[in-house]
Amino acid sequence: MIESSYLAEGPRVAIRRLSRSDFAEIHALREESAPMLARWLGVRENTREAFDSSLDRFEQPTREGLVICLTGTGQIVGGININDIVRGTLQSGVLGYTAYASTAGRGYMTEGLGLVVRFAFDELGLHRLEANIQPDNLPSLKLVERLGFRREGYSPAFQHINGEWRDHERWALTAQ
């Protein structure tokens, strides 16, 4: 489905908010990509109820749930969340993102995350974005590095994934 409500558009991809009508496509993408993503994200429930619960969370002012779509077809090729949005003197958010197996390695995430960064800084008025990445997730580390994020630190036992507390590197980008 070609979407007319894009928030930002690049040469190959555009971003828009995740919607309830995306369930079937997202469900299929998660199923096909589960082996690729389980190492980084853990095993996640892929049901209508879990999807609806995520959408409910994205209705909060502290979160944005976005999808990356091909501009020609509207096909979803990735997802990016801006979580833990803090206003006031911080104006910051924490990124979470996922590529899908059938479209990984084509540069869609680089272009899409670039659009999200501009949207976060220009439209949402954020000043800072962070990404917390497991040290051995080289594709993700290279992604944020390509977009100008800088490594700020190392967080031991940062997130519980697949029954273990995993270390993460903290990367950030500011609006200036």
List keywords for this structure.
Aminopeptidase; alpha+beta; single chain; 4 helices; 35% strand; eight-stranded mixed beta sheet
Summed up, the domain count is 1
| Biggest pleated-sheet summary | 8 strands, mixed
Structural class: alpha+beta
According to CATH, what is the class?
Alpha Beta
What's the pLDDT, averaged over the residues?
A: 93
| CATH architecture name | 3-Layer(aba) Sandwich
Low-pLDDT ranges:
none
What would the CATH topology be? Aminopeptidase
Distance between the termini: 36 Å
For the biggest β-sheet, the strand order reads 1-2-3-4-5-6-8-7
> How would you name the CATH homologous superfamily?
Gcn5-related N-acetyltransferase (GNAT)
Strand content: 35-45%
Outline, from the CA principal axes? globular
Order of helices and strands: EEHHEEEHEHEE
Percent range of helical residues: 25-40%
How large is the count of helical segments?
Answer: 4
* CA radius of gyration: 15 Å
The count of β-strands is 8
Molecular structure report:
The chain has helices at residues 23-41, 48-58, 108-123, 138-146; strands at 8-9, 13-17, 64-70, 76-86, 92-99, 128-133, 150-161, 164-174. With 176 residues, it is α+β, with helices and mostly antiparallel strands. The protein has one domain: Gcn5-related N-acetyltransferase (GNAT) (Aminopeptidase). It has an eight-stranded mixed beta sheet with strand order 1-2-3-4-5-6-8-7, sandwiched between helices.
